[in-house]
């Protein structure tokens, strides 16, 4: 409430006639009853229209008005009273508390302003005071008293405003500022008055703020509105954002030139306005914008922001004739860690990986989280492939050291595909897709490396989508076929084992070999389901042959890295074997060295569990991977398979044969069985026999064949290749 302008109470109001106006019947009755209990003569008006009608026929000393009323609001009633009863005083009783509404009511002649919900005693005191003043005004100078009352109320409202209210002179110096500036910015009004307003502008907004008020089109109906940052007093508090609304002052309506209360400078005011603190809104907008373009876990740009920057970089590269590189990064073994240790640890690992990767890139590069454990990296303005190669090597090396997650020490690698603009793609989608394709070629070759995209990797997008669709249908329609390649004793020509190999009987393209669809199966995560189908069929076929008179026949199956790395790999494999009543001792699983070395600790534990159940372990393509011999005596390895590339090198006088010699000798020394793949000629077979390699497989004994052909052959004792 504004302070009273008189010191003594008045009793004249006991006979005053009061008009009470509100569109809420309950509030209207309550207010009327309160006034009647004090002896006032009260007339009730339900709504503004009724009030105007009563004012035309009855005389009132005072009107208590609500502002918000339908059809005819409080401002309209005030205007009507001014015309028909100019000596009727007005008190506003309203829930409307905005600065503009209060200011407008006071300008229209309101003697006081009471906010709903009101205190009855306060309201009665206000009514009594206003009626008393009216009596004095009638006895003295009515206009002067109302002006003083209005000025006092204005001063109270201005200093109680939630916004900073200010006045500036023609040079931009403060000539008035309300007390709100102290709580919002820490300044005393007195220390700002007389100083230029740029004193509190943030340095970044000084120029824009200084010219804001110089526009020729600023009027009362067209105020200048802008958002600026204002400095808080001292350096310990943060800069805050404000929305400034400034109006010009008309000298004819504001002729005041004396000292202004509240720390005014006494100069002629040229502008007045408000400054509303919008810091929370700006922070919310900034956070929403950050959410839209960043990954909240790693704080990296997301896919949308990465694509925006890539589009811009492509445009710049075209203009300048420069190259740029897009890298697609996929973490190796992340899913295993995530499934084993939980998503919380997985999130911590992603954050730690991000921290290391960011240390490898240049200022101006963009590393983004594309989704899951996939990242993309934009390298703008590179000179050649070597620039991208060096970055890729840094990224791979940065992740070699183990990560400490609580009590767990984990290892994670990264497979990187690289696409160079313009040769690997002219537009954004091509570059990202081709980098993705190159990355999957790294995965197929054993992970933890990098490759540049080349045209030889290209699979027509439409054909690739069709092939993926057909592969999914093949699993539903049972189009996959299991062929078997015999593993033969080189001295007796007896079949000792069968390697199960998958084929796809495509309804249109005929019989497809693994190279035609297994990379796609790996990429689309269908490899797990596909391998399960092969294992089921192989266990049925070979199990039947074992039970029909070949109890020592061995089944060799290849397993994908995705299967082996799964936390429930051992449990799932044994469940399938037992479901088909297949003897575990006749099963040999083939895995590559790279799968073992990717996560030696976890894989070792799984292999020991399988070995304890009788399952044999074979290292496939031995000598083409890490070739770290340390694991051979630490793990339950039963068989080494010599890669066919070494077998092909067996020629008289060729050095390649030395590798075969070494592998066979090492296998004998470690008491491991050895199988040579890709044997095609008598020369190769005789050389291997001479080394003591007694198990071979290859076209010398025939290609992989369907189960029906193998079944017939097993009924005979093969003399040579003709049987297979």
From TrEMBL:
Its cofactor is Mg(2+). Residues 322-455 form the GGDEF domain. Residues 17-131 form the Response regulatory domain. Its EC number is 3.1.4.52. InterPro entries: Biofilm_reg_signaling, CheY-like_superfamily, EAL_dom, EAL_sf, GGDEF_dom, Nucleotide_cyclase, PAS, PAS-like_dom_sf. Residues 464-718 form the EAL domain. NCBIfam families: GGDEF, sensory_box. This is cyclic-guanylate-specific phosphodiesterase. The lineage of its organism: Bacteria, Pseudomonadati, Pseudomonadota, Gammaproteobacteria, Pseudomonadales.
């Amino acid at each position: 409430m504004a302070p009273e302008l008189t010191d003594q109470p008045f009793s004249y109001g006991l006979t005053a006639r009061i008009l009470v106006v509100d569109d809420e019947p309950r509030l209207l009755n309550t207010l009327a009853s309160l006034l009647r209990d004090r002896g006032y003569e009260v007339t009730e008006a339900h709504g503004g229209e009724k009030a105007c009608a009563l004012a035309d026929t009855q005389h009132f000393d005072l009107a208590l008005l609500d502002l918000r009323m339908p059809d005819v609001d409080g401002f309209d009633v005030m205007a009507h009273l001014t015309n028909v009863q100019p000596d009727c005083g007005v008190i506003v009783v309203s829930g409307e508390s905005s600065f503009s509404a209060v200011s407008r009511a006071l300008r229209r002649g309101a003697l006081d302003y009471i906010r709903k919900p009101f205190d009855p005693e306060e309201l009665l005191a206000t009514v009594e005071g206003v009626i008393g003043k009216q009596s004095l005004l009638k006895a003295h100078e009515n206009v002067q008293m109302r002006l003083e009352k209005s000025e006092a109320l204005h001063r109270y409202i201005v200093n109680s405003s939630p916004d900073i209210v200010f006045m500036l002179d023609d040079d931009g110096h403060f000539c008035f500022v309300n007390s709100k500036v102290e709580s919002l910015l820490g300044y005393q009004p007195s220390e700002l008055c007389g100083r230029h307003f740029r004193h509190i502008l943030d340095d970044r907004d000084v120029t824009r703020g200084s010219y804001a008020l110089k526009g020729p089109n600023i009027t009362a109906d067209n105020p200048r509105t802008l958002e600026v940052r204002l400095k808080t007093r001292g350096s310990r508090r943060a800069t805050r954002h404000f929305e400034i609304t400034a109006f010009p002052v008309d000298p004819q309506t504001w002729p005041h030139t004396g000292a202004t209360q509240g720390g005014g400078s006494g100069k002629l005011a040229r502008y007045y306005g408000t400054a509303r603190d919008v810091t929370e809104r700006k922070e919310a907008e900034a956070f929403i914008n950050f959410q839209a373009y960043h990954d909240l876990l790693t704080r990296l740009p997301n896919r949308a922001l990465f694509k925006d920057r890539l589009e811009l970089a492509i445009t710049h590269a075209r203009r300048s004739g420069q190259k740029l590189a897009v890298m697609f990064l996929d973490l190796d073994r992340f899913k295993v860690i995530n499934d084993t240790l939980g998503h919380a640890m997985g999130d911590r690992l992603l954050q730690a990986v991000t921290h290391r990767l960011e240390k490898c890139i240049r200022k101006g590069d963009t590393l983004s989280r594309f989704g899951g454990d996939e990242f993309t990296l934009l390298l703008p303005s590179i000179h050649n492939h070597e620039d991208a190669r060096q970055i890729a090597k840094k990224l791979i090396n940065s992740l070699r050291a183990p990560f400490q997650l609580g009590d767990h020490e984990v290892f994670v690698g990264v497979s990187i595909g690289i696409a160079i603009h313009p040769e690997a793609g002219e537009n954004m989608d091509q570059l990202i897709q081709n980098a993705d394709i190159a990355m999957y070629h790294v995965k197929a070759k054993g992970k933890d490396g990098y490759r540049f995209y080349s045209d030889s990797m290209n699979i027509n997008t439409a054909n690739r989508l069709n092939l993926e669709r057909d592969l999914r249908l093949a699993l539903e329609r049972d189009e996959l076929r299991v062929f078997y390649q015999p593993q033969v004793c080189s001295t007796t020509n007896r079949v000792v084992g069968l390697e199960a190999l998958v084929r796809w009987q495509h309804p249109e393209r005929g019989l497809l070999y693994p190279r035609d669809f297994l990379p796609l199966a790996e990429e689309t995560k269908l490899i797990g389901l596909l391998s399960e189908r092969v294992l089921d069929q192989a266990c049925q076929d070979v199990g039947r042959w074992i039970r029909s008179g070949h109890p020592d026949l061995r089944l060799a199956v290849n397993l994908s890295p995705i299967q082996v790395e799964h936390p429930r790999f051992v449990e799932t494999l044994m469940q399938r074997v037992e479901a088909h009543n297949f003897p575990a001792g006749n099963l040999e699983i083939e895995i590559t060295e790279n799968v073992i070395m990717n996560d030696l600790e976890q894989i070792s534990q799984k292999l020991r569990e399988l070995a304890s159940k009788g399952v044999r372990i074979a290292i496939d393509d031995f000598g083409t991977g890490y070739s770290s011999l340390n694991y051979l005596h630490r793990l339950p390895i039963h068989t080494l398979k010599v890669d066919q590339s070494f077998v092909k090198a067996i020629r008289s006088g060729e050095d390649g044969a030395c590798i075969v010699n070494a592998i066979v000798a090492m296998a004998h020394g470690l008491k491991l069985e050895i199988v040579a793949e890709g044997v095609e000629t008598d020369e190769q077979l005789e050389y291997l026999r001479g080394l003591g390699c007694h198990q071979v497989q290859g076209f010398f004994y025939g290609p992989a064949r369907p189960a029906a052909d193998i079944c017939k052959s097993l009924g005979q004792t093969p003399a040579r290749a003709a049987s297979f």
